[in-house]
Write a structure and sequence with these properties.
This protein is mainly alpha-helical. The chain has 2 domains: 6-86; 104-248, Four Helix Bundle (Hemerythrin (Met), subunit A) (Up-down Bundle), CATH 1.20.120. The protein is built from 14 helices and no strands. It is elongated, with a radius of gyration of 22 Å.
């Protein structure tokens, strides 16, 4: 088939880089007889390559289809990578579950919206959540999704405070807490009572001391990511509504 187009290769490399360690990737290359162990460990050219560069090099120098099939069997290709590969003719099954935590359309809209409002750090946390999800580190995936939500709420609260002539955000303790920021969103009218109750309940569910602390399954982790993405999209729509935001200003 030849080399993968660069835009496809980027998605494949990103997925593999997040889901498999360099030693495991090297073992796979040796197992498939695409490289010798001596080449990977002793050849100075390859020894100096980062894991990501090694992945790119192997795809550009070796048998792509053999490598992709082996990686698919090991669960190293996420849904985004598989969809990209299917567009250039690779027949790889796309499972119902596994990467539903990153719906393609919603993810694209969310990333663009967050960037447009200067909320790139929220996207960074969501990306870290996805990376952990792919690697089946579900507790870490949950934690990063919760951090993304906390950061989103905090940044919106600070934006509202600035919009309202630098109004002080009321705090119950020595420091402003996530609950203070959530309460401020409600007091300003950014969210209504029902949305506030939902946000509080979900935050409790997503917290480390919530339901089943220290234990999580793929489906629970996927649910948390779905909800965080949905909340973020709703809040971004409000932020983008000039009439709505003007009405909140003092």
């Amino acid at each position: 088939m030849g080399w993968l187009p660069d835009h496809i290769l980027i998605k494949v490399v990103r997925s593999i880089d997040a889901s498999i360690t360099r030693p495991r990737y090297e073992e796979l290359l040796v197992e498939l007889q695409l490289y010798s162990l001596d080449t990977l460990r002793d050849d100075e050219e390859y020894y100096k390559l980062s894991k990501r560069d090694l992945i790119i090099a192997s795809f550009k120098e070796k048998d792509e289809e053999t490598l992709l099939e082996a990686l698919d069997e090991r669960g190293a290709l996420n849904k985004d990578a598989k969809q990209a590969l299917s567009s250039v003719g690779f027949e790889i099954d796309i499972p119902l579950a596994g990467d539903l935590a990153q719906p393609v359309e919603e993810h694209s809209r969310l990333e663009a919206g967050l960037h447009g409002h200067g909320l790139d750090q929220v996207q960074d946390f969501l990306d870290q959540s996805l990376d952990n999800y792919i690697q089946e580190n579900y507790e870490a995936a949950n934690a990063m999704a919760r951090t993304a939500l906390e950061n989103l709420v905090e940044q919106i609260a600070l934006t509202l405070s600035s919009l309202r002539n630098n109004e002080a955000i009321p705090q119950r303790g020595k420091y402003l807490s996530p609950s203070d920021y959530r309460a401020y969103l409600a007091s300003t009218g950014f969210i209504d009572d029902a949305e506030k109750q939902f946000l509080d309940k979900f935050y409790g569910y997503a917290s480390t001391d919530g339901s089943h602390p220290g234990i999580s399954t793929e489906s629970e982790s996927r649910l948390r990511r779905f909800v965080v993405v949905g909340i973020a999209l709703l809040y971004l729509e409000k932020l983008s509504n000039d009439q709505f935001m003007d009405a909140l200003a003092l």
